[in-house]
Write a structure and sequence with these properties.
Blueprint: H1 5-30, H2 45-53, E1 60-62, H3 68-74, H4 78-85, H5 119-133, E2 139-144, H6 151-163, E3 167-173, E4 176-177, E5 180-181, H7 193-196, E6 202-206, H8 210-225, E7 231-236, H9 254-261, H10 265-275, H11 281-304
Parallel strand pairs: 1-2, 2-3, 3-7, 6-7
Antiparallel strand pairs: 4-5
Helix pairs in contact: 1-2, 1-3, 1-10, 1-11, 2-3, 2-8, 4-11, 5-6
Length: about 325
């Protein structure tokens, strides 16, 4: 499958935007300027950018907390995300949540709690609705390697397979479930083997290659959209920071980090663009300047935004009763 030049440029832009936004959030976290914790996708950005960019406008995504690329691609702006971390009224949750537990159905993004893989059955439910209504829409759900050891992972996969639903399951295999390495999580080499138990075809891709992730996702979406049922895609990658920014990740061998540092997804994409004469150095520098400006504007927006009114604290917590008469 050929990828258009403009799409390759956009993939690079979103990689840079995701990295720079999260790097700035990390810096602000260490300065004590943001509320709550900070969880980033450093080193794994190609996963969320690749599968997020392959979606069509009316599709539904059920991401997890390392999927910043999906939030940005689907239309949740850097300004709203930054304001979210500042606990401001202009944030995605209006100041009622202080970090990346976000979603916005106006952009087809389902929100999520911390219980990873819970979004697998939720995404499956969206796919069931599409099939019942006869809509040519698909859902995609993502979790980490640790999430695949939870019950809701298996429940969602089994139901989707049995009903042949239009959903694609993504696994961000970043080697560690918090501090637990893959070898202590499961007695199989590839997580993709788990999908075979439910009769779901699986693929293994280089999770640091955004073009490869994009192509695999696009192909799987086409299969699901045309009645072929679910696909499971394992993206092999490595998170280069701790589980969150308060975690020093001393449990990760230094030589492993050194090995994966050479496979940085942004450096990979730059090399791909240069070697294939798709973009010149000046073009990449222009994208970098654009991203830098966006992040500066997002931070200024968050700083200047108001805090929420305490009187609004309970608004939106409960379903609004339907008026009688």
């Amino acid at each position: 499958m050929d990828v258009k030049r403009e799409d390759l440029s956009q993939l690079y832009y979103y990689l840079k935007l995701t990295r720079r936004l999260e790097d700035r959030i990390t810096s602000l976290y260490h300065q004590g300027k943001i509320l709550g914790g900070a969880w980033t996708s450093n080193g794994t950005e190609a996963v969320s950018v690749g599968y997020g960019y392959a979606l069509e406008r009316n599709d539904i995504s059920a991401p997890y907390f390392r999927d910043m690329g999906v939030f940005l691609i689907r239309g949740i702006s850097a300004k709203r995300i930054m304001a979210q971390y500042f606990g401001k009224k202009t944030g995605v949750t209006g100041g009622k949540e202080g970090n990346v537990h976000i979603g916005d159905l106006n952009f087809g993004v389902i929100g999520f709690p911390s219980h990873l893989a819970d979004n697998y059955p939720v995404g499956t439910g969206a796919a069931l609705a599409f099939k019942i209504r006869g809509e040519k829409r698909i859902a995609v759900a993502c979790t980490g390697d640790g999430g695949t050891s939870r019950g809701d992972f298996h429940e969602g996969m089994n139901f989707a397979a049995a009903r042949k639903l239009p959903i694609v399951f993504i696994c961000n295999n970043n080697q560690y479930a918090y501090s637990t390495p893959l070898r202590l999580q499961m007695n199989i080499k590839d997580i993709a083997e788990r999908a075979l138990a439910y009769g779901i075809p699986s693929r293994i891709v280089d999770g640091n290659n955004v073009v490869e992730v994009y192509k695999a996702a696009k192909e799987a979406y086409d299969v699901a959209r045309n009645g072929g049922g679910p696909t499971f895609i394992e993206c092999k990658t490595m998170r280069m920071h701790g589980h969150s920014e308060h975690d020093s990740a001393k449990y990760v061998p230094r030589e492993l980090l050194d090995e994966w540092k050479k496979k940085d997804p942004i450096l990979n994409m730059e090399k791909y663009l240069w070697e294939n004469s798709i973009a010149k150095k000046e073009e990449l520098e222009s994208i970098d300047l654009r991203v830098k400006k966006e992040i500066e504007e997002a931070e200024a927006f968050a700083e200047e935004s108001p805090y929420p009114d305490p009187a609004d604290g309970q608004k939106g917590l409960y379903a609004t009763p339907i008026a009688e008469g």
